Amino acid sequence: MNKEIPKDFYITSDTWFGRPQILQIANRRSFQNIDEMNAELIKRWNKRVKMTDVVFHLGNFAWDPTTARKILKKLNGTIFFVRGSQDNALEEVINEFPRASFLQDSITELLDFDLVLSHYPLAIWNGKDSGTIHMHGHAVYSHKTNLQLEKRFNMCTDFWDYTPVNYLTLKDFIDAEKNKENL
Predict the structure, then answer these.
(1) If you write DSSP's letter for every residue of 152-165 in order, what string do you get?
(2) Buried b (16+ CB within 10 A) or exposed e, 51-86
(3) Rounded CA gap, 126 and 104, in Å?
(4) Confidence of residue 2 (pLDDT cuts 50, 70, 90)
């Protein structure tokens, strides 16, 4: 990664723009159809993320190349993608967007943030025993975030009100858990 990461950035995963089946698979029943879901996810993203912000998307962005292209044109921020299990559509169009790129490694360590990113949830990651945080996607129903078990966040958009989450907010959750432990 050749761009310096600001101390404040956003993370999300498994938006699945354009995938009709995701309404049932992920129980996104609050949306009438896929067009409504796409529009609402774009609205929530852009309400939170400014054009100058950085977003890490941890995989499974869009279902087809036409949708991927259409959505990328509308989203704010510079987006770094971890390849997901179904990101073939994104691979076809990503080179058209200067503010979007794939991270080279499927497991990315952000050493300055004591953070490990991946698409899949990891049982073991570098620094786990010393407090390094792991953020992942892929697991829509399983691996829910439970900081009392371990410092791992499931970043699937379904768990975060369909909105990218600010890293510093997540760090505050970790710090609050540490404070509880020290009481």
Answers:
(1) EEE-BGGGGTTS-E
(2) eebbbbbbbbbbbbbebbbbbbeebbbbbbbbbbeb
(3) 17
(4) very low
Q: What CA–CA distances, in Å, run from 26 to 8, 52, 59, 89, 157?
A: 29, 30, 15, 20, 10
**Which has the minimum average pLDDT: 36-45, 150-159, 168-177?**
168-177
* Distance separating alpha carbons of residues 22 and 37, to the nearest angstrom: 10
* CA triple 120-86-173, angle to 5 deg: 35
The CA–CA distances, whole Å, from 74 to 59, 67, 138, 161 equal: 18, 11, 23, 19
> What does the pLDDT read at residue 134?
95
Angle at which helix 65-72 crosses helix 34-48, to 10 degrees, equals: 30
**Can you tell me the distance from the alpha carbon of 82 to that of 47, in angstroms, rounded to the nearest whole number?**
23
Q: State pLDDT tens for residues 82-133.
A: 999 999 999 999 999 999 999 999 999 999 899 999 999 999 999 999 989 9
Q: What phi and psi values does residue 4 have, to the nearest 5 degrees?
A: -70, 135
**Single pTM value for the model:** 0.92
**Residue 55: CA count within 13 A, CB half-sphere:** 27
